[in-house]
Amino acid sequence: MYKKCKWLTAVVIICIALSPLAAYGSNPSARTITVFRVEGDNALISRGDARSTAPRENQRISEGHILSTGADTTVHLQMDRDSLLQMDAHSQVAVSSSGNRLALSLQSGNALVNAGRQQSGQTLETRVGNVGLTVRGTMFTLVTGGEEDLFIVMLSGAGEVNGTPLPAGARLSVLDDNYTSHTFDIEFELDLETLDLFTLASILEHKDYLIEAGTFTADELSALPEIIEKRTYEVSLAIETAEAEEGLAAEEETEQIIIHVPGPDTTTPPGGELGIGDNNTNNSGNNNNNNNSGGNGSDGSGSISNGGSDGNDGSGDGSDSGDSNSGGGQPPTPPSPPDNIRDFIGYVGEEFEIGEIVRHNGNLYEVLQSFTFNGDPNWYPGIAPSLWKLLG
Question: Are 30 and 102 contacting, i.e. CB atoms less than 8 angstroms apart?
Answer without folding.
Answer: yes
